[in-house]
Structures are given as structure tokens and as C-alpha cells.
Amino acid sequence: MDQAMANILAPSNGILKQAIMDLKEPVIFRGILKDEEGCNIWKFLDWNLTELAEKLGDMRLPFRTGFNGRSKEPQWDIKCPTQTMTMQRFLEESYSCDRPEKWYYFDYKYMHEWLKDQPEILASVDWRRFGFDAWGEDSTLWIGNKGAHTNCHQDSYGCNLVAQMHGRKQWFLFPPSCTNALQPTRIPYEESTVYSKFNFFCPTQKDEEAIVNVPERPKCITLEPGQVLFVPGGWWHYVESLDLSVSVNVWLPLPTDCEARLREALVKLIATRLGKGCLNSAEEPHSTLHRSMKLVEACLHEVKANEEPVESPSKKKAKAVTWTAAALSKEYPKHVSLLSELNTKELRKLLIEKRERFSVSNEAASDEKCAQVTEDSNLSESSLDQISKAVINSFCHPDIISRVAQLVIDSNVTA
């Protein structure tokens, strides 16, 4: 394609779909959610926060809450208390002061569950521009104020498209090859999520040293309204709201997901049998040994069903051109951008800033709050001591689980 023309034309739906399935590193899509006249394709982008609050009306939303202060470990999702309020009340709380003591996060909420009586909002999200037949019903909604964050983690399967609707979100991304260096942990346990032990929200000096010594440099981006971030499968990411923000995402399946689901079923089997208190109280009654084994059986059946017969050389089709992030950004420079890579000095500066934004004087109070939350969540050290954590994390380490899953697949078991 002529370079001058590429600066004008946006990639087609088909090219975007193929590229998303091909790409092995993240990219930013700009202007994809606008038509040729520069108008928003998604109606959601036309609404301001007050209008969104009016549309949600008196619907009470559960916001995960945390504190803007120092803590020795991450503020784990499962340990955070929940506060229920309307969107209007959330806006009032968020705007009440410049340096709020708490952050609030309506996170990881499937729109079809929470907005089933809001067809206008559901219809305002349409992923067909990226070549996928997915809508608001297939998406999740994230609403948070300054400080709301998702701890550094790796999704077990699928890839991710994230559209920023309002405000700004800061993203740190590490490639899958950094898994061991980021010290993966499955405690607290969350299905399909492998956490890093490091506290990116307010890193200790020990965290800082470990993070800057990760072999590969992280990519960093501040996502702005109208931009869409593509997160490839297996990439680690830490996400933080820099101000009041709203975003929508969709997880897209990958051909390797059936094997990933088997690995995840094995993790759940180990975590729920060896680690009393790993699951939240609502999920624990449904995680008996029988149920866990049936899940493994179902996932193994899926793997076996998806095994493709080896084609003879004469029947093999010519492989289509595979998109890389560099090639896509070069072909469509106006609409596709690579993410900046932080050097060691830049990364250390950002980590120090995150720690020093909270005064040392609030550290004791923060630790007291953290201890109270831990006690309230029934996940205290008395029920899950350090030895059991080490055993579970060793058995559930991504390298070990991958090997176990492959041995199960290769066995003569008939699923």
C-alpha cells in the first residue's frame, strides 16, 4: 500500500481481526472508533459522566474499595471490602476532595448481568469494527476513581481489547517470558488469573529492586478516551486509574484456550484441595473434589475434541501473511502505534514516585487497615500459613502446571 494512502485509510475490519489473532505484542489503536466524518461509532463515547449516571439512575453498584496509602503487600482483590452506591453517589464521593483516602472500583463486571435492563448502553458497544461479532452483552465494564487499580497479573487464556471511554488509565505490560521474574502466585486464588507478588501500586524498596531487574523492559502507556489497547495472550499487566475513568473490554478466544482451561482446572483442583480458604466464601461450597474432577474431565474432553488431524503435505494450505506489531504500525501509522518501552532509569523513577506519593506517616495506619481487611476476609495467616502457600504455589507454578497438563493430555485416559 502507498504510504501516503496508509496515512489516510484505516485498516479494514478483516485486517484488524487477522492482526489481532496474529500479534504477539501489544499495540494502541487510535481513531478506530470514529467514522470518516470524525464522529464516534460508539454512542457510549458521546455521553459524559453525568449523562451516564442519569442513565444508570438509582441502580446500586458494588464498588471494591481500597486505601490510598502504603502497604507491605498488594491490596488483593478478594480481600477488599465492597461498598454499594449509585453512579451519582460515586461521582460525588470521587469529586469531594483532591486526595481521597479511598479508591473505588466497579471492576470486572459483565455488562449483560448488570445492564440487562439498559438496552441503550448495551447497544452502544460494538466490536464489529475490529472484525468480531461481539457487543455490549459480551463486554465487561470498569468504573474507578483515582487510585483504583488492578494488581499486576497474567490472564490464563484469551487476548484482550480494552476501549477507554472516560479519563485515563496507566498500563504497565511485561511479556510472558517474564513470568518467573515477576514471582507468580495463585494465592489469593482467582480463576484464570495468575498474580505477581509485587506491589506495583506502592512498591517497597525490595519490590522496586526486583521489578527493575526483570530481564525484559516493560511497556508503558497512558490510555486516553477513544483509544483501544490490544493485550496479547499471556502478557502481564498492571492497570491504574490516574483520574476518574471508565473503560470497556472484551476477551477474545484463542486456539490454545482449551489447553489453558485444562491447566486452570488443574490449578483449581490443587488450590481448593490443599488450600482451605483459597476461594471466596460464595464459591467454596461449589468446589468439592467431585466437582473439581468433573471440571478437569470436561476440559480434557475439550482438548481431545479440538485436536486436529495431521494433514498430508499435499493438503496443507499456504500460510497467510502473519502480521507483526511493527508491520501493522508501519502500514497504518495514523491508527496503530507501538507502546513505549521504559528503560531502567525511567522504570525506577516511576516506581519511586508511586511509593513516595504516600507519606511514611500513613504506613502504620495503612498496615492496620490491611490487617483488618485480611481478618474480615477469612484469609488470615492462621487459616493459610506460609508453608501451605509455598506448597500450593509450587504445585500451581505455570511451568509445573503446563507439564502436568501435557502429561494428562498424553496419557491414555479417555475423556
Descriptive notes:
- The protein has 14 helices and 16 strands.
- The protein has helices at residues 3-6, 13-22, 49-56, 87-95, 111-114, 119-123, 205-212, 257-274, 289-306, 325-331, 344-356, 363-376, 386-395, 398-410; strands at 27-29, 61-67, 82-85, 102-110, 140-144, 149-155, 159-166, 169-174, 184-190, 193-196, 219-223, 228-231, 236-241, 245-252, 336-338, 340-341.
- Helix 8 (257-274) packs antiparallel against helix 13 and helix 8 crosses helix 14.
- The longest helix is centred in the middle third of the chain and has 18 residues, at 257-274.
- It comes from Cephus cinctus (Wheat stem sawfly).
- One of its GO terms (cellular component) is cytoplasm.
- Keywords: Cytoplasm.
- Pfam families: Cupin_8.
Main sheet summary: 9 strands, antiparallel
Secondary-structure element sequence? Answer: HHEHEEHEHHEEEEEEHEEEEHHHEEHHHH
What is the CA-atom radius of gyration, in angstroms? 22 Å
* Terminal residue distance: 49 Å
- The total count of helices amounts to 14
Overall body shape: globular
Under the CATH scheme, the architecture of the largest domain is: Sandwich
Across the major sheet, the strand order is 3-2-4-5-14-7-12-1-15
Total number of strands: 16
CATH superfamily descriptor of the largest domain = Cupin
Strand content: 15-25%
Number of domains as seen in the coordinates: 2
Query: What is the fold named in CATH at topology level of the largest domain?
Result: Jelly Rolls
Give the fraction of residues assigned to helices.
25-40%
Low-pLDDT segments, ≥5 res: 373-380
Structural class: alpha+beta
| Average pLDDT reading | 89
- The CATH class of the largest domain, by name, is Mainly Beta
